[in-house]
Amino acid sequence: MASTKYTMTDADLNLCWLSWMQHCACGYNYAKMMGSGVAHMMRIPISKFYDSKEEQGREIEKHLQFFNTEPHIGSMIMGTIIAMEEDRAKGEDIKPEDITKIKSSLMGPFAGIGDSLIQGAFVPIFLSIGVNLGLQGNILGPILFAVVCCGACLLASRYLFFQGYRLGKDAIMKVMSNGVFQQIMAGAGIVGCTVIGAMAAGTVTTKLIFEFNVGESLINIQTQMLDAIFLGIVPLCVIALVMRALNKGTKMTTVLFATMLISFVLGALGIIG
Asked: Per-domain residue ranges for the chain?
């Protein structure tokens, strides 16, 4: 039978959130992805909602299913299913299949939003700042990235977790249906591409040292010819070739070693330096 102590406190929710952030990728595998992490987190509310070990085991087992999303933004889903489990324990007409459907329907869109915002925009922005500071010998570079970026992601994750619990499935589905998430993803994609392009332009350097004589003048092919037509065209061509190779399915390690080999050969021939 359901326990009478089935209302989650802030302390309980904090414990669930910490469990999710620490264990969401534990036992990650191709069959269940984050399923074991979800089940591990759900043991906290379920052990509070149900008395017998048999009931607890049965309820936890239903969360040991395929689940995969971006963990920070996807924490909102975790808050939502805890709220649904709480309402179900109180006797409301919520079936286990309803909770499974919510998880299945939200994990994809939230993964897209999280990947676009966190991996596509937020992390590259702070990574580019940190890398540039590090290249200048400033110790604040790695500190800024580790503390500010990771700290902000954790704060956002906790906020969304509690919002998911308080709003419930109806509010989240309503927000998803009005196109707000699609606009966020589109904007994040634009920002991410801009940031990555700026970071590549600032950190990728390729200097052609090949020179030739024109009359009595010594002409450098890059600084006096190519950059005069399109500033930074040589690094841009290098980035474009690498991206083309990756888009064709070439392994990252193959691209890396090929770049090193080509650079060594061109350097030995006196073309780049």
From this structure: 10-195, 205-268
